[in-house]
Specification:
The chain has one domain: Orthogonal Bundle (Cytochrome Bc1 Complex, Chain D, domain 2). By secondary structure, the protein is mainly alpha-helical. The chain contains 4 helices and no strands.
């Protein structure tokens, strides 16, 4: 086999695997909220709390610290006070509810909530231009953040 067909064959194989891996991801428009909860993982797999902690603190991703105090991340500077403190958040909300809040807080609170929908195409007002029509976080990043928040007891 010449190099080009071998390369194309490898690409088809990798694309097929990528399709199978992403087959369980729920698209933002297909997320079902029932009783203020999203009961199933958006990706079909559990989140990684270590990765979720990173997303939570990352200013270019979740940037959750811009609005929330979180003692678990005391090494980070500039915790916000706009949203509620997230210390012991896992004692107040179940993972299914936390997932809903991260996906689209307006579905739990009100349309007036300034928290953006992180896995919704309705992310709120004054959104960065590069995020218009896109989600702020991927489905897996949402699952990772939910896994992290679930450790805060």
């Amino acid at each position: 086999m010449t190099p080009l067909p071998r390369l194309l064959s490898g690409c088809v194989f990798l694309c097929t695997i990528a399709s199978v891996v992403n087959a369980d991801v729920i698209a933002p428009g297909d997320v079902k909220i029932e009783n203020l909860a999203i009961s199933t993982s958006l990706t079909g797999q559990a989140g990684d709390a270590v990765e979720g902690r990173k997303v939570f603190a990352d200013k270019s991703l979740g940037n959750c610290l811009a609005c929330h105090v979180n003692s678990d991340l005391s090494e980070q500077l500039f915790h916000g006070e706009i949203g509620p403190a997230l210390d012991a958040v896992a004692t107040r909300w179940k993972p299914e509810q936390l997932r809903t809040i991260v996906v689209n807080s307006k579905a739990v609170f009100t349309e007036n909530s300034i928290m953006p929908g992180f896995y919704s195409l309705e992310v709120g007002k004054d959104v960065r231009e590069d995020l218009v029509g896109k989600t702020i976080l991927t489905a897996q990043q949402v699952e990772d953040v939910v896994a992290y928040l679930s450790t805060l007891k």
